[in-house]
Amino acid sequence: MRRAVCPGSYDPATNGHLDIIERAAKLFDEVVVAVGVNKSKKGLFTTEERMDMLREITAKLPNVRVDSWQGLLVDYCRENDIIAVAKGLRSVSDFDYELQMAQMNRELTGLETLLMANNPAYGFVSSSLVKEVTALGGDIEHLVPPIVFKRLSEKYSERG
Ligand code: COD
What we know:
Layout: E1 3-8, H1 15-27, E2 30-36, H2 47-57, E3 64-69, H3 73-79, E4 84-89, H4 92-109, E5 112-117, H5 127-135, H6 146-159
The structure holds dephospho coenzyme A.
């Protein structure tokens, strides 16, 4: 079983994330989409809310499951028999950061990282920007899965 992880904050997931998850699912027997739990960073959505949206978004992908983890990614991978990290690259700044993490992870346990060139249609899309544009009344419906659009709209209407 060749198992990979697509780690992220997913606060919330976007079409850019989904593109990477779908492509990773074609390359590996199983892909775990893992939400990183960072107690010192309060997001818009709770970990459970992020996971629920991810489960709905990936329901059509039979070899993808959703989980969460806390602590070092290499430890989570070792405990779950995961051989590679699959991530998307949007820009040179992504590359600098991701390369450093990939090298550190390989140094720590030999964990491999697969960096995939992003779909240019979503090169400018990030969770923080979709939140900001929604909060300011802009339309991002075409940039996120339908469930995320619904939940984002609900969150910001609750907040007024
Ligand atoms: N197109 C393509 N890919 C995208 C897009 C897009 N539009 N948006 C995001 N992605 C991909 C990127 O590969 C990104 O890495 C991944 O999705 C997750 O993105 P986010 O924004 O949800 O998550 P981040 O960047 O906040 O998450 C960072 C992690 C939690 C993945 C990272 O900090 C991590 O791996 N931490 C593990 C803790 C650890 O082991 N630390 C030691 C590191 S050496």
